[in-house]
């Protein structure tokens, strides 16, 4: 039987929980050995738990090198594939929520760039397929065409954990403020973008876009990259970054493997939103962003 004292304690604990949580953004070294990549991710999930993390986020394409020629070979079904099963088990064993970066997902004859999210019992909480495919051509710098191999997702994906609503975008998705706005409108306090920018657009836009989305949606943003491997066909910028709802960088790695473990204070979301009330000042009589697909 629960006493009044127990009830007061649990209300206090609940109130504290609502104030925030600890996040780990893991910048992994990714190579051609899939099993090794997945084992490294699992090991980092356990280490993050030891550092007190409640939510652990991995980078884009963490089980495979990033490149159109790799996606078919490394693709797995969700949630039956080996990588899904390993993430589910790691989340349950460590007792954390795992935002599983991305993996090439096979579904029928289609391939997607997909993020899976696992709760602390190992249950699949969310599955998001990259909506804006990375097709760019900057002459003499970088040409990339994900759409040669991948199909685009068409659903916005948010999930709730510890009473907090999170939204997911994948890398190039961050260039599209409409997606971020939809997730903010749906009640998100934090957006997580597993991403692998490159040596041309990374220095120019990675932090800028993260700060822009944090500032215009007034929420926390986490950008999670693989570490840089200069021998890889696609060289990632790295610089995993955590940004607060004021648009300020609260933590940033360089190009090497590493992890950011930080407290996420949810009161800052309310503070910014009440002090600069753009959310209620939007001229939706003139413009709007609406979702046509939940
Ligand atoms: N993996 C990606 O979507 C890369 C996006 C990118 O580098 C960009 O500049 O945008």
TrEMBL record:
Assigned GO CC terms: mitochondrion
Q: Which reaction does it catalyse?
A: 2-oxoglutaramate + H2O = 2-oxoglutarate + NH4(+); 2-oxosuccinamate + H2O = oxaloacetate + NH4(+)
Please name the InterPro entries in this protein's record.
C-N_Hydrolase, C-N_Hydrolase_sf, Nit1/2_C-N_Hydrolase, UPF0012_CS
Which PROSITE patterns does the record match to this protein?
Answer: CN_HYDROLASE (PS50263), UPF0012 (PS01227)
| UniProt KW keywords | Hydrolase
EC number, as in UniProt: 3.5.1.3
Q: Which family does it belong to?
A: Belongs to the carbon-nitrogen hydrolase superfamily. NIT1/NIT2 family.
Q: What is this protein called?
A: omega-amidase
Write down the species. Danaus chrysippus (African queen)
